[in-house]
Amino acid sequence: MFSKLVNFWVNKAVTESLLSSPKFHEFAAKTHHHVNTISKKAAPMVNEGATRATIFAKAFKETVIKESENLAKKK
Predict the structure, then answer these.
(1) What does the pLDDT look like over 53-71, one tens digit per residue?
(2) Rg of the chain on CA atoms, in Å
(3) What is d(CA 70, CA 65) in angstroms, rounded to the nearest whole number?
(4) Dihedral (Cα; 65, 70, 73, 75), 10-degree rounding
(5) For the residues of the chain, what is the DSSP string, one character each?
(6) What is the pTM of this model?
């Protein structure tokens, strides 16, 4: 119980000191900008990957169906 109280007060002190720090706000703003930039650049690649995965899954399904039909014919 004592460790939970200490943890709470330490977390509160750290959080309040970060909130009052101009450097931390500057760091957070730069990080937010970089993450947004990377996300915008990656979005087309993610969409392309999803399209390729869909095409692959469809082709794989068709191949499995054809092969199972061929096996059924051989029996």
Answers:
(1) 999 999 999 999 999 998 8
(2) 27
(3) 9
(4) -100
(5) -HHHHHHHHHHHHHHHHHHT-HHHHHHHHHHHHHHHHHHHHHHHHHHHHHHHHHHHHHHHHHHHHHHHHHHHHH-
(6) 0.51
**Token representation of residue 71:** 């096996």
Residue entry with tokens 């092969």: 67
Contacts of 41 (CB under 8 A, 6+ apart): none
Q: What is the pLDDT of residues 2-17, one digit of tens each?
A: 899 999 999 999 999 9
Asked whether the beta carbons of 24 and 18 are under 8 A apart, the reply is yes
